[in-house]
Amino acid sequence: MKFCDAEGWTVFSQSRAMDFTLCFQDSVLTLIPNVILLVFLTPRIHKVVGKGRLEGIKAGALFHFKMLFVLASATIQLAILIKVVSESNYRSSALLSTILYLVGLIGAAALYWFEYFNIANPSVSLLVFWLVTALISIFPTRSWIQASQDGLSSPLALLKLLFTIVSFLIFTLENIPKSNRTSLTRHNAITIDQKNPSPETRSNYFARVSFFWLVPLLKQGKKRALRMDDLYSLHPKLLSYPLYLTTKAKIDAEEAIAIQRIKDDEERGVSNEGSKTKKGHINLFGTVLHTVGYSFLAAVFPRILYICTYYIRPVLFSSLIDFISTYSATSIAQGEQQAPWIGFGLLIAGINLSGGQKQRISIGRAVYANADVYIFDDPLSAVDAHVDEHIFKNVFQSILAEKTRILITNGANHLKDADQIVVIKQGRISEDGQYTDLMQNKKGDLFRLVKESEITVSKEEGGKKLSLSGNGSSEDDRSGDGEGASTESSGDEGTVDAESDEPRLAKRPSFKRSKSSRIKGDGDIELDELDEVDEEIVAKGNVGWPVYKYYLSSIGTASMIFISFVLVIYVGIKVGIQLWQGRWGNANDKLAAGSAQEHPENYWIMTYFAWVISGTLVLALVSSIFLIFLARRASMKLHSAMLAPLVRSPMSFFDVTSSGKIVNRFAHDVTAIDIQLPFVFLQLITMIFNALNIFGMCIAASPYFVIIMIPLGFGYYQLGGFYLVSSRELKRLDSAARSPLYAHFGETLAGLTTIRAFNDSSRFAVQATTLLDRSQQTSYLTNVSTRWLQIMLDFLSLIVLTAVGLLAILQRESANQQVFSIVLSQIGQLTAIMTQILSCSVNLETTIVSVERAREYSQLTPEARDVIPDSKTDEAWPQRGQIVFNQYSTRYREGMDLVLKGVNVIINGGERVGIVGRTGAGKSSVTMALFRIIEAAEGSIQIDGTDISTLGLHELRSHLTIIPQDPFLFGDSIRVNLDPFNKHTDTEIWAALESASLKSYVKTLPEGISTTIDNGGENMSLGQRQLLSLARAMLSQNTHVLCLDEATAAIDVETDNAIQLALRREFSGCTVLTIAHRINTIMDNDRILVLEQGQVVEYDTPQNLLQKKDSIFYSLAAKSGNAK
């Protein structure tokens, strides 16, 4: 028995052409796959077994087929072993080879068994083993066939051939993915919901490295436009939630260490002078929280309401299962036609709800929390007297009767029902006790507060007392024009009883959101007709030529002609370089043949470098001019074209467009236009000119290359067409998926206090990770599709280069080899250039989507013009301030229900008119119509005889003044907020602050009126922001019409009375429209306008309305304690 045959240990056989020796094959080639497998077999099996068996896995057809073929291959190797041993002169190397194969096959069978039942992904180790085994087995099969005189009739040759075939079959079966196992979970594992699991998780190694698992999605995108539901779920290893848990655990561990150190310092009596708590109720909240703990203090109700861009039901924060009782939290919605948290409805930061509706949703959220301690911060400031009494009776005194309730309020109408009263004055507790005890102190703060709220308001002029008992006479019974008559409603428009049962919903709202008119932002909520405004509108199909034309027009026609001209010069220089290289080569050939040297070597070198430097400079010139000047100018034009229509868009646009969508356009899309698009566009046109240059030179050198160019162009065209459609849709979905993430991030920051107070940070973190995964899902697939395209382009380039090389070999006798070498190098460049052209075309197609989205904003429908040149109004308009509503009706958007219906009202100049009504009756819509924030659907509004629809918006709004319910302040100094156009002196500003009862507070600030205010006035209380808005209004000198929309809702009664006196003094002679829920603030007004469901139901003097015991105004006054 010899180890090797006569050829010995050499590698290549001397007796067989282009073959290895049998000894080398048996020893070296056989060792490669088997030794590698055996080395990693034991640790791999140990690791797989340690993972545990997957649930619900059964042996399928694939398992049985593979095990059958593995046993077949082992049987063949056993037959080869018997045959080798049976021969008298067998080689020990062949025996060793067969034994190694048998051991390796047994190990492979064992590993496959465990991996099939324990691992979801295909086995990389087995895949590589069977591939190497199948390829290596070809050599001994070929050698045995050549060495045997009988050929395939030889038993060993036949067995070797069968083993090779079976090895390739097993390798093929190994490439077949296992059944969908993404939904299967292990014991004690986190369940991950993936509706459309990615094939990547169950694809084999070769499919993953070549990204071929993405091909089915690309095929689907070729047939129709992709949707988010079509996309594969994110790979489990890329999910953000496990990373969040890991990060949170580390942060919690560090915080635990810090808290322990603080406790140690407290035990040692260490104090920190800098750690002072915030003022007011935040201080109280912190104290109670520190004393009682999170488990008791869960339902905190901040005055600054937080309603996220999500469904209404999740806004309730807490599980409804734990709140099963005879009471229903929806009963607090009395006054609404439909309770806003029944069913599912979409809200965008509460922009489509009125102030009262927001408060009731927040109260319902707190009630559902079912906590032991409740803190309510002025929760009834935006609701009318009916709803105020109903909520207090049915929530605070009924549902929450057994709970600890802390009510922070500026009003005094519910103080007598409190068990204990704490009066805070200038940050200190001035009084503490029960209502009856504190009221006995005639000099106490509580007594003064209650009496001020009950004070009988006197007219500033005439001094005649106004009786609130309902029996007084009208002081100023105006006549004429019929405005003095009380307007009664008929039919279903009668008086609304707050105690009546709410109408039942016609049907349970479906979870599927449907199109709507609106939530009647100022009217009643209709959950069956909610706007679907959370989804970004995604365009579909090809990006049309108008989009490209729009971008090119921003660059400029003359600029594009100039760039094309310079690129032609660049291409000419490249042609000159090629021709110069040819001449240089010919001169060297002549010199080698013995001819005289025409020019010195330096001549050729210096001229060549001159050509190269010229081409480089020209290309640098093109790049600099385009990227620095033209692209920058185009980006600025596109940005301005987006911004100008946006700031001129009507409020209806912002009602249905979240801030996240707008930020997405101006962040992600503008960044793409600024950075990505110019580079892609310049590279594309440069490569096109280079390709035309090379293509022309190749055709001129050898016409046969047309044969290669045709399939080359066809292949690139088909590949680009297949990829382009899907990549474009992925890019659009990627851009749209960022909007909810941006919106959620912004809203989380805005509502951070509420989220933490409700101890609901974890749920918002989970929502953030979900939205992040949704965004990453599109981004990941976009990047993967780009990598797949690059691999396919490289593969196609390899085929083309191989074809060119074969053509050069076949024509080596007839063609000029020097020409072929130049052409071959040019073909190599052309392949790379065409690859770049296709890549740039795809990138341009996907990036131009950002221009498409920017163009959509440039086409937004704007509000009416700011200035109308032909307007004939006087500079002093309006002089009297008379306002006439003539059959006026309006809606928030086209196709929506009317929020004001046929309003006929005449408000004489200088009159003070109070506007009241239930929450959602349309009160704020009156001021919005007056400022033309919403346009008229029917009828008209006239001010001093001028139809406001004939005026420019700037001309109209600059002559009117409004103090809104939710005042907005800029992130600048107090002075700039009061006088943004710098028209007033410091003395006038201090006088306005004094009139608004804010001077003493501003004086305490370090920099006075130069103190900087945070964006939105976050470093000021709501009441202070309202006072600052009052001061700003008092600085206005050219107004004769003033609108107050709950301007003092967050101000205490004492300050409110002072403000009312200041308003009467500063705006005497002006027409004042006051929307108020505090009836006492409008009791001295000339007339009262009562609205119900967008219609005028009462309009008369307070005295006349109070004499009618069945009037709505009388019931409101009685509920608030202003009528007997």
Give a short synopsis of this structure.
The protein is of the alpha/beta class and 1124 residues long. The protein is 53% helix and 8% strand.
Description of the molecule:
There is one protein chain. The protein is α/β, with parallel strands linked by helices. Among the domains are: 22-180, no CATH class; 294-454, P-loop containing nucleotide triphosphate hydrolases (Rossmann fold); 878-1119, 3-Layer(aba) Sandwich (Rossmann fold). 53% of the residues lie in helices and 8% in strands. It is built from 33 helices and 17 strands. It has a six-stranded mixed beta sheet, with helices on both faces. Strands 9-8-11-12 form a four-stranded antiparallel beta sheet, covered by helices on one side. The longest helix has 50 residues, at 761-810. The protein is elongated. The termini are far apart.
What's the CATH class of the domain at 878-1119, please? Alpha Beta
Give the name of the CATH superfamily of the domain at 878-1119: P-loop containing nucleotide triphosphate hydrolases
Write out the strand line-up for the largest beta sheet, numbering strands in chain order. 13-14-15-10-16-17
Tell me the β content: 5-15%
Return the average pLDDT rounded to an integer.
72
Broad shape: elongated
